[in-house]
UniProtKB/TrEMBL annotation:
Transmembrane segments: none annotated. CDD domains: metallo-hydrolase-like_MBL-fold. This is Glyoxylase, beta-lactamase superfamily II. It comes from Nocardioides terrae. PANTHER family: ENDORIBONUCLEASE LACTB2. Residues 29-190 form the Metallo-beta-lactamase domain. InterPro entries: LACTB2_WH, Metallo-B-lactamas, RibonucZ/Hydroxyglut_hydro, Sec-metab_biosynth-thioest, WH-like_DNA-bd_sf.
Length: 264
């Protein structure tokens, strides 16, 4: 991609191994994160990504002894290889959705994952998907956001699993962490690391509010209520200046916006 993002080491505890699955929705590819306390033997692997042997080999080499695999959410570009990789390294998979777990332990908002001095706090951030989680690493002032916040551009609210109301609440939760100086950087599921979290979260919140107003204006132009509007017709008004190749993804977010407006 244009900025040459290729992963690397960040903070004292984070390393990103970039998966070879670039695309419109995945940007440069999926970021597989390896977390390890300095000097510790065992690691935590977040989002093993696609089932590409070369990628999993690279993750295994960088991770060494893996204590547990965590999933930010169930979408295949993050979760496809989770079970295969976990079985390979002899670890469990923890996720909010029981269907994606390997072993008896799940994950939920407020949980704390501790491995050899490493502390990872689980923050529920639904919206992009119903099971989206973020992982806060307090010692590095970083939060792994999966697809809730991307390293470039903005994300899709994947209706109907994802909902706009939940997404706005999740952005507010992350913003509160950044405002309290608990989080300074974002380690996303796609795209480069964000070194200054607060202005990006400000932008994300403003962008969603602006898009919502644009959808309201489009409904006025089309003279239809949100509940009966044709999502594609709304996309063609709101995203008229956007490459039509992106309209399919935009329609998911528009469906979420229409559902939000219908309920409010």
């Amino acid at each position: 991609m244009t900025d040459g993002w290729s992963g690397g080491s960040f903070g004292e505890r984070g390393r990103c191994v970039l998966a070879p699955n670039p695309g419109i929705m995945t940007l440069d590819g999926t970021n597989t994160w390896i977390l390890r306390e300095p000097g510790a033997a065992r690691s935590v692997v977040v989002d093993p990504g696609p089932a590409v042997v070369g990628h999993l080999d690279a993750v295994a080499e960088a991770a060494g002894d893996v204590a547990v695999v965590l999933l930010t959410h169930h979408h295949a570009d993050h979760s496809e290889a989770a079970r295969e990789f976990a079985e390979r390294v002899g670890a469990g998979v923890r996720a909010l959705d029981p269907a994606y777990r390997l072993g008896s332990e799940g994950l939920a908002d407020g949980d704390v994952v501790e491995v050899d001095g490493l502390e990872v706090r689980v923050v529920g951030t639904p919206g992009h998907s119903g099971d989206s989680l973020s992982f806060w690493v307090p010692a590095d002032g970083a939060v792994l956001t999966g697809d809730t916040v991307l390293g470039r551009g903005t994300t899709v609210v994947a209706h109907p699993d994802g909902t706009l109301g939940a997404y706005l609440d999740s952005l507010d939760r992350l913003h509160a962490l950044a405002s309290a100086h608990e989080v300074s950087s974002i380690w996303p599921g796609h795209g480069p690391v964000i070194g200054d979290a607060l202005p990006v979260l400000d932008h994300y919140i403003a962008h969603r509010r602006d898009r919502l107003e644009q959808v309201r204006a489009a409904l006025d132009v089309l003279d239809v209520p949100a509940a009966s509007a044709d999502p594609r017709a709304v996309v063609e008004v709101v995203y008229a200046d956007v490459d039509p190749v992106l309209w399919g993804a935009a329609e998911l977010s528009v469906r979420a916006q229409l559902a939000f407006l219908s309920a409010h």
